[in-house]
C-alpha cells in the first residue's frame, strides 16, 4: 500500500515538473506576437457591413427599404456581389465595352437605362448559354427570340447579335410593362415569364413585386439588378478601383459590309479582308457555322474589323 502511494506521488510530481518545463520553454523561447502584429500579418482583409441608409430605386421606382424584409433582401444581394470579386471586376471591365451600345438602344426605344443591369444579371455581359437553352446577353429562349424578330436556325442565331437582341429585349420589356403596369414587375416577368407571374399575382391579390412571395430566383432577381446597379455605379465605395486602361475597349473600329449571297467558307471570306476567322467571329458572334447560307438573298450586315489583332 505504501509502495503504491509513493509511486503515485512520484508520477504526479513528474507530470507537474514536465508541465512547468514545457510552459516555461514556450514562454521564454517562443513568445506570442503582439496583437497588433497578428492583425497586420494574418488578417489582411477588412470586411465591413454596408450602409443601407440611402435611397434605392429601379427604373425610378423606389425599393421600399423601410420594410425590413425588402431591406435585408437587397442587402444580401449587395453583399454577395460586392464580395464576389472576380465576377464583379469582370463586369466592370466589360461594361466599358458593351454599355454604350446597350444604352443607346435603350434610349432609342424609351426603356429606362437601369435595364442595362438586367443584362449583367442575366449573362454577366457575355454570350452565355443557360442549361435551359437561353442564349446571348439577354438570355432569350428560342421561341421568344423568334417572336420578337430574331433569326434563329442552324447557321444563324441573332440572340448573339448584341444590337438586334437588345432591340428585341426592349420590345419585350415594353410589352411586359404594358401588361403589369410597372418596370419592376416587367423585370420580374422577364425572369419568371409573364404567364407564371400573372398567375401568382392573381392568387396573392397583389401587383406589387415587393409583396409577392415568388420562387427563390425571381424573389432575388430585381434585388440583384438593383445591387449590380449600386455597385457598378459606385465601384470605389465597394473597394473596386480601376483605371481607364484596365477597362475593355469598345469593339467599334470596324467597317460594315452588306452581303445578300451565300458565303461558302467564312475562313476564305475573312482572308479576303486580311483578318482571321476568329476576328470575324468575335465581331459577328451571330454567325454560328463556318458558312452563311442565304438562298433567300436576305441582306446581312457583317462587321469587318479594320485591323488585325
Descriptive report:
This protein has two domains: 57-246, Lysozyme (Orthogonal Bundle); 254-305. Helix 4 packs across helix 7. It has helices spanning 2-29, 35-42, 68-82, 85-108, 116-123, 142-147, 162-180, 183-192, 194-204, 216-233, 266-272, 277-283; strands spanning 57-58, 61-62, 254-259, 300-305. The strands form two sheets. Strands 1-2 form a two-stranded antiparallel sheet. Residues 1-7 and 20-28 have low confidence and may be disordered. It contains twelve helices and four strands. The longest helix has 28 residues, at 2-29. The chain is mainly alpha-helical.
Q: From N to C, what is the helix and strand string?
A: HHEEHHHHHHHHEHHE
As for the CATH topology of the largest domain, it is Lysozyme
Shape: globular
How many strands, which pairing sense, and closed or not: the largest β-sheet? 2 strands, antiparallel
Features:
309 residues; mainly alpha; Lysozyme; two-stranded antiparallel ribbon; 12 helices; disordered N terminus
Task: Give a summary of the structure in a few sentences.
This protein has two domains: 57-246, Lysozyme; 254-305.
Topology of helices and strands:
Elements: H1 2-29, H2 35-42, E1 57-58, E2 61-62, H3 68-82, H4 85-108, H5 116-123, H6 142-147, H7 162-180, H8 183-192, H9 194-204, H10 216-233, E3 254-259, H11 266-272, H12 277-283, E4 300-305
Antiparallel strand pairs: 1-2, 3-4
Helix pairs in contact: 3-10, 4-7, 5-10, 7-8, 8-9, 8-10
Amino acid at each position: 500500500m505504501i509502495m503504491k502511494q509513493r509511486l503515485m506521488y512520484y508520477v504526479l510530481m513528474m507530470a507537474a515538473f514536465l508541465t512547468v518545463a514545457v510552459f516555461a520553454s514556450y514562454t521564454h523561447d517562443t513568445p506570442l506576437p503582439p496583437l497588433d502584429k497578428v492583425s497586420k500579418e494574418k488578417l489582411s482583409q477588412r470586411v465591413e457591413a454596408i450602409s443601407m441608409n440611402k435611397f434605392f430605386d429601379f427604373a425610378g421606382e423606389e425599393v421600399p427599404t423601410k420594410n425590413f424584409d425588402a431591406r435585408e433582401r437587397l442587402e444580401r444581394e449587395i453583399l454577395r456581389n460586392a464580395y464576389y470579386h472576380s465576377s464583379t471586376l469582370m463586369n466592370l471591365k466589360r461594361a466599358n465595352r458593351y454599355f454604350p451600345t446597350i444604352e443607346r438602344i435603350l434610349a432609342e426605344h424609351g426603356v429606362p437605362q437601369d435595364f442595362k443591369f438586367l443584362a449583367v444579371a442575366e449573362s454577366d455581359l457575355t454570350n452565355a448559354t443557360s442549361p435551359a437553352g437561353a442564349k446571348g446577353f439577354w438570355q432569350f429562349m428560342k421561341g421568344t427570340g423568334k417572336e420578337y424578330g430574331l433569326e434563329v436556325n442552324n447557321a444563324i442565331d441573332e440572340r448573339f447579335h448584341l444590337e438586334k437582341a437588345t432591340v428585341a429585349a426592349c420590345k419585350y420589356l415594353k410589352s411586359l410593362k404594358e401588361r403589369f403596369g410597372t418596370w419592376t414587375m416587367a423585370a420580374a416577368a422577364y425572369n419568371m415569364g409573364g404567364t407564371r407571374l400573372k398567375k401568382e399575382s392573381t392568387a396573392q391579390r397583389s401587383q406589387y413585386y415587393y409583396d409577392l412571395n415568388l420562387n427563390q430566383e425571381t424573389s432575388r432577381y430585381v434585388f440583384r439588378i438593383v445591387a449590380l446597379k449600386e455597385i457598378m455605379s459606385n465601384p470605389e465605395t465597394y473597394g473596386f478601383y480601376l483605371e481607364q486602361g484596365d477597362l475593355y475597349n469598345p469593339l467599334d473600329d470596324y467597317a460594315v459590309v452588306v452581303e445578300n449571297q451565300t458565303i461558302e467558307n467564312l475562313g476564305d471570306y475573312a482572308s479576303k479582308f486580311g483578318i482571321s476567322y476568329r476576328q470575324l467571329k468575335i465581331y459577328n458572334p451571330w454567325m454560328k457555322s463556318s458558312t452563311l447560307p442565304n438562298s433567300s438573298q436576305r441582306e446581312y450586315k457583317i462587321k469587318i474589323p479594320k485591323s488585325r489583332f
